[in-house]
């Protein structure tokens, strides 16, 4: 399973390079879709073994979000909506977990942003605004957590430095 997860994450990274839709890339959108779908299939196999694995859920969330975003840009709104809906279900599965990484939380923010773009394109201005507000709120929470983690790391660093200094003084 660990190797399968690494392979799936590799397909996701490859798709980002192939696509280049929102970031610089090769603009090979068919190849990007194929790579995201390979990552998603591997993720589905892994999820069948462990439905609560945050890394797997995040991988699948990324895949579905990016597939939906590419399809939105291509004008396939119906399929894009379905992908974003499935991505939102993955967020629901991730939500109860208290030990999410910053990257995993950022994946949720990206979904909210991209879904906002989709809703705006569909003429659903209020829903788009709601998604954008949710993205901003999630980003602010993410930044707060990052600041707290940085403060904790600073305290740990200071404690280690003090122990080292005491050890040097006692030597």
Characterization of the model:
28% of the residues are buried. The chain has 171 residues and is mainly α. It has helices at 2-19, 29-49, 54-73, 77-94, 102-121, 125-170. The longest helix has 46 residues, at 125-170. The radius of gyration is 20 Å and the shape is globular. The protein has six helices and no strands.
Give a quick rundown of the structure.
This protein is mostly helical. The protein has 6 helices and no strands.
Order of helix and strand elements from N to C terminus:
HHHHHH
State the secondary-structure class: mainly alpha
Distance between the termini: 49 Å
Q: Largest sheet, if any?
A: none
Strand content: under 5%
Q: Mind sketching the topology for me?
A:
Layout: H1 2-19, H2 29-49, H3 54-73, H4 77-94, H5 102-121, H6 125-170
Helix pairs in contact: 1-2, 1-3, 2-3, 3-4, 3-5, 4-5, 5-6
What distinguishing features does this structure have?
single chain; 171 residues; mainly alpha; 0% strand
